[in-house]
Amino acid sequence: QLQLVESGGGLVQPGGSLRLSCTASGLRLDAYVMTWFRQVPGKEREGVSCISSSGGGTNYADSVKGRFTISRDNATVYLQMNSLKPEDTAIYFCAARGGRYCGYYGMDYWGKGTLVTVSS
Question: Average pLDDT, stretch 83-89?
């Protein structure tokens, strides 16, 4: 059983930066595509970014391209968020899917989320 724990959320001013981390335990992370989603209460969950199991392929939602960067090592996936905007405010979830290539579907495991609030 793969367990995912997010951290790094918090309150930041517009234009600021945060780095989210998703630490995995229980199984080898390099067998999984890793994905960040976000959700605002009352709205649908949105795929933000994903990274292939090898780390060689990444994808970003149009709303975060050029501002967010996803990366991974053996046990952790990171989301570096720069130039944050109020509309980035959401709960951010980490998720894993067995396989090789990016895609915002068919997640096998989810974390519980970390809250990011962008406000002055």
Answer: 98
